[in-house]
Each structure stands twice: as C-alpha cells, then as structure tokens.
Predict the 3D structure of the following.
Amino acid sequence: MSNTGNTEWHAVVLAAGRGPDDSMARAFSMSHKCMIEIAGETMLSRVVSTLDAHSSIGSISVVTDEPAAAKSALGAKITDVELLRADATAAASAHAAATRAGFERPVLITTADHVLLSAQILDHFLEATIRSDADLTAGLASAETILAAYPQAKRTFLRFGPDRVSGCNLFGLTTDRALAALEFWQRLEQDRKSPVKLVRAFGLVPLIRYLTGTLDLQSAFSLASGRLGLKAVPVLLPFANAAIDVDKPADKELVEQILGPD
C-alpha cells in the first residue's frame, strides 16, 4: 500500500443525519443513517475502518449530530476516533472540523455513506492531491467511468463542456487557504446540485460559457481558483466505486451487490 509520499493526513468523516426527514433512517427503522448496516457492518464503521487501515491517515475525526448513534455505529473503534459535534450544515461542519485540525497535516474530508471507499481509491486521490500542489482538490469520476461499470446507477452528473462528472465525496485540503472554499460552499450549499446556480455565483461570463457549453472542467476549476484566491484542482478518479454513496435504498442494494456475500 502506498503511503502517498510519507505525507500523513487527518481524516474528517461527515456523519450527521438529516433529522426526522432522513428517509434512509426511516426506511431501515434506524435512529440514524450512519447505523445502517451494509453487508453486516454499519456504514460509519466501514468508512472509519478503511481510513484507519490506510498508512497515510494519521488521525480521524467523525462529525455527528448524535454522538450516541456514532458511538454505537463505531463500536470498539471509538477509542481511535475523535467525535465532533455537527454544525448546522455539512459545509459549516467541514469548516469547523478543518479549522480545528489546524492544518498541522493536510485534511481529507469524506462522508459516512462512502462505504465503497478503498485503499486503492485513497492511494490515487491522496497521491494526486500531493502532486497537484493545490490548496484544495475535489474527487470526481466521469460519467463514462461510472456507467461503464454500473449502467443502472442513477447519479447526478454535472456537465462542463464535453465533461460529465459526478462528485465522489472526497476533498483534500492542504493549506488554510482552502477554508475559503468551505466558506463559499456554506453560502451555496442548497444549490450544490444545480450547476447553473453554482456557476452563476461566479459571474455572468462564466454562466454564459456554461450555458453555451464552452466552460470545461479545468476552466471551471481555474475560475473557482481565481474567485476564491486559492489553487483548486479536480482529481478524476478512474474508479466507478468512488462515486457510489448510499443516499437511498436503491444505493444500498447496489452497494451490497458490489460487495457480494460476506
């Protein structure tokens, strides 16, 4: 297993639920989404186990709105994990956790429903982030990569010129300048799946370029970098699994098919 150039990371796992409106928790009669089991292990435990086993992850924080649920989901692993109280939104929680980490080491942000996260995915993403010399990286997978492996998967694809991509719930923050992106995310969080609204926030010209199909992925990140005063870089992951999270019952069914029998 690679150790991404001897760089040690602090991992933040966003594990807050959606309260009484959490359809996943209701569907599986759980008090909290992170407690749902996938192939015999809770989602949160799976993600934390993968992070804990990776040689480049030096410490782990779990951000939760219900510490008791997180402790139950983690079981014995709780001794190796710091629990942090969630803020009002995912963006605010990520900002608070990254700030608390202090950037003594780079910060990896992921989510508790990223149950197909693997050492291979982490190797690729962390190595690419270090090589990029960026303040911020975002993991993405192309529509072609995802649909070639899972044509039945229903994903939200963002189109930038010829590029169609889906987010992978992986963000690398290597300097405190990346906090500006999290602050911006807080302002736009409700529009995160509307590319038109996201691009419009950067001004009229980027919006026109997006609508006319002339704003490609690299250009979009360059514009974001200029707007936020940092270097932001996309990391395209060649793994369909990197883009499969568990947001709805159909996702859970797909993930269990991928994992196969115990």
Remarks:
- The chain has one domain: 4-259.
- The mean pLDDT is 86.
- The domain at 4-259 is CATH 3.90.550.10 (Spore Coat Polysaccharide Biosynthesis Protein SpsA; Chain A).
